[in-house]
Amino acid sequence: MLKIIFTSFFFLITFLNANLLQEAIDNAKEGSILKLPKGVYKGSIVINKPISIIGKEDGVIIDGEQQGTVIQITSPFVTIKNLTITGSGDRHDTLDSAIKITNSNQSEISGNIIKDSLFGIDVSMTNNSIISNNYITSKDLDLGLRGDGLRLWYSNDNIVTKNKLIKSRDMVIWYSHGNEISENYGEHNRYSLHFMYAGKNLVKNNTYKYNSVGIFFMYSQDTTAIGNTIQSSLGATGMGIGLKDVSNFTLKDNTIIYCAQGLYIDRSPFEPDTKNWIEDNKILYNSEALHFHSISENNVIKSNKILGNIEDIINDSRGAKTDLNEIVNNYWDNYEGFDKDGDNIGDTPHKVFQYADQLWVYDQDVKFFYGSPVIALLNFLAKLAPFTQPIFLMADDKPKLKM
After folding, report:
1. How far is CA 16 from CA 7, 13, 88, in A?
2. Which residue positions does the secretion signal occupy (predicted)?
3. Given the DSSP bridges, would you call strands 350-354 and 391-396 parallel, antiparallel or unpaired?
4. Cβ neighbours of residue 184 under 8 Å, at least 6 residues apart?
5. Counting C-beta atoms within 10 Å of the first and last residue's C-beta, which end of the chain has fewer, N or C?
6. Strand pairing partners for 312?
7. Percentage of the chain surpassing pLDDT 90?
C-alpha cells in the first residue's frame, strides 16, 4: 500500500512540473496553430519549427517563473500572438527576455502584453518580420538596471509598429538596416529610440514623452525620420533628437517640444561630400532649439518653425563652424526685422551671436547663474555697447515672418 501511495505521489509531482506547452510544441507538426485557452502555462519554452501560438481569449499567460528567457524562437515562420508573457529571469549577461528570437525570418510577434521581464523582445539576425501592437514594460528596477524593451541586432527589413514601451530602458536598433519603425509610443524610458551603425531605416509617426532622450542616431546614414513627436525629455540634458556622426539623413515634419535640448548635432554630416536635410520641423519651447557640438557643417536647415525656445542656437565648441550650414527660410520668433514688401521674407538676415550671458556654454559652473539679474545685465550691456566682440554663430538670410 505504501508503495502505491509513493508511486502516485511521484506521478503527481512529475505532472505538476511538466511543461505541457513545450510538449505540445514538440509534438506539433510544422505549420500547426496552437490556440491556447485562458490559463497559466509554464514558460522557458523553445520553438524550433514553423508554428503559431495564439491566445484565443484574454488571460492566456506564459509564466517564466523568474528563470531565464520565457519564449525562445530559433525558427522562421513563427507567430506569437495575443499572449501575456511574464516573469523572465533578471540576468543581464544572458539577456533574460520575455521573447528572444534568433535566426528567423517572416515571423510575427503581435498583440502581446509583456511585463515583469528584464528585456522585452530581443531580436537578432531576424529579417522580414513584423513586431506590432505589443505592450512592453520591464521589471521594477532603477532606470539603468532595466533591460531594453525592444532590441534589433543585425536584423533587416522588419516592420516595428504600434508598440507601446512604458518604464523600460531603451529601444535599440543596432547594426540593422531597412527597417520601418512607425507609430510606436514610449514613456518613462531612457532612450526611447537609439540607432547605431544602422542605415536606410524609416522612422515615422512615433510619439515619445517623458524619456531621457527621444531619438538618438549614431554612426549611421541614409535614414528618414518624419512626423515624429518628442515631448518633455527629462533632466538637465534631456534631448529631443540627436545626430552623432551621421550622414545623408532627412528629418522632416517632426515636433520637438519642452526638452532641454531640441536638436543636438555632433559631427554631422560625417561622410565627406554629404549633407543632412532638416526641414519643416517644429522646434518649440525648449531650453535650446539647436545645439551644435564639434565640427558640424553642410546641414541644410530649412523651413523650420523655431518658437518659444530660451536659446535658438548653442555652439559649445569654438570650432564647430555653425555658420557653414545652409540655414534658410526658417521662422524665428526672435527675429527683429521687417517685411516691407509683404513677401513673408525678412528684409534683413536673422543673425545669431553669442553674448556674455552664454559664458556658461564653455564653463558649466557659470550655468548656476543663468537667468540671474547679473547675467541678464551683462547680456543687456553686451548688446547695447559690446565690451568684447560677440561670437557670430549663424545667419538665416531669408527668415520667414510667419509659418
Report:
1. 14, 5, 20
2. 1-18
3. antiparallel
4. 160, 161, 162, 163, 164, 165, 171, 193, 206, 207
5. N
6. none
7. 77
Q: Cα 117 vs. chain centroid, distance in angstroms?
A: 19
DSSP conformation letters of 166-205: ES-S-EEEES--S-EEES-EEES-SEEEEEES-BS-EEES
Beta bridge mates, 290: 263, 313
SS3 content of the chain, % helix, strand, coil (to 5): 15, 40, 45
Task: Pick the closest to residue 159 from 215, 202, 222 (CA basis).
Answer: 202
CA distance 290 to 313: 5
CA angle at 348 for the pair 343 and 351, rounded to the nearest 5°: 125
In sequence order, the 6+-apart residues with CB closer than 8 A to the CB of 368 are none
CA 294 to CA 297: how far, in whole Å? 10
Instruction: Count the residues in the chain.
Output: 403
pLDDT digits (tens, 9 = 90+) for 280-290: 999 999 989 99
Per DSSP bridges, beta strands 97-102 and 71-73 are parallel
Note the pLDDT of residue 360. Answer: 52
Pairwise CA distance, residues 228 & 2, whole Å: 70
User: How far apart are alpha carbons 37 and 237 in whole angstroms?
Assistant: 48
Residue 269: asked if its preceding bond is cis (omega within 30°), the reply is yes
For residue 29, is it left (φ>0), alpha (ψ between -120 and 50) or beta?
beta
Q: How many CA atoms lie within 13 A of 59 on its CB side?
A: 4
Full set of structural domains in the chain with CATH: 19-169 (2.160.20.10)
Identify the H or E element spanning 380: helix 373-384
Measured from the Cβ of residue 65, the count of other Cβ atoms closer than 10 Å reads 13
Contact call for residues 218 and 246 (beta carbons, < 8 A): yes
Give, in order, the Cα–Cα distances in Å from 396 to each of 293, 346, 388: 19, 10, 23
The pLDDT value given to residue 3: 38
